[in-house]
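Record type: monomer structure entry
Structure origin: computed from sequence
Chain ID: A
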Amino acid sequence: MIIILYSVIILILFIIINQYLTIKENYLTYFLPFYTVESKPLRNFYINDDYNKNFFKHKLNYEVFSFLGSKKNPQSNFLKQFSKRLLSKSNIVQSNYIELDNDEIVLEKLNENKNAMSMITIPTYLDYAKDNNNLNISLLSNLYSSYLLVLTKLKYNINSLNEINSDTKIGIFKNNTINNFYQKLFTDMNKSIKNIKIYNTLKELQDSLLNDENEVIIYFSELPSSSLDELIQSDYESQVIILPFDLSSKISSIFFKKNDYAKIGYFDLNKIEGKYLPKKFGDYYYFMFKPTIKLLKINQYLVCNKHLNKKVVRDVFSYIFEYRKSYNDGSYIIENIEPNYDLIKYIPFHPEVLKVFREKGYITNI
């Protein structure tokens, strides 16, 4: 019995000491079991002090750059998560995520900082470009789609976009693409809208609809969206409805000619968490087995300062090219990253991205 007890004590001590002395290797550590072996390569290894050098240095990217996000724009959350996943799946060793006050400051800093990249939409870029010449912004890649959400309540009897008029009380979100787009949106829809109120946060905007401060609220969002889910769950009377982006054929044709970066997208309303379906209003009826709604969508784009290090540009774009399908299960589906004229005429691609496209066979003549 005493022998067994001693054996158990010795085993426990062995395990503790072993864990204490274990040394874990990483890529900066070399394992050299045969120092005394007379081998020219091994001798050179020590003579040249190679054991103090990083074997992977020629493969890893040590350039430090910054992602610029906005505190008040919820869509910057994607950029924050993107920066983390990039480090785990690419050759890039370090990046910084800097959170600025709003989208306008983000664009200013992006244009000034040679080591920066961020995320924008075409309307936001065009609005900024109106008052700023000699922009230093280049396109790096297409990202996910944002959908135009036009929300109202059944009791207001606004059953389509056509029924919004100059007297309709409308709320929009300041730190969102809609702030750069709503005037053009209504003009191209042949509508004169006067009663607009702008909100600094998405929560304030959504509360304005729930509290009857506005009859309609409008903003762009990824879908599915946790903020939309929360709004629907807070709508205890099931009054809130999402209006489809349906225009007359004539107005629709003109609208998409003037806004060729915008497309029609479709969303399954069953993906909203909370009791939204069924919903019937005007000519529209959505239920569990007919849940698809027609919406306007625009893309989010990853952009960078045109002077950003070429190797950083290549590594970031290569990561997106290789791992874009890993985003297919959530709200941030990256559908296509191929070059197209409708996009290039607004923001020029960074030259290094065009080189990668050519290497991959997407471009045959530049």
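Annotation 1: Residues 65 and 115 are 5 Å apart (CA to CA).
Annotation 2: The chain is about 35% helix and 20% strand.
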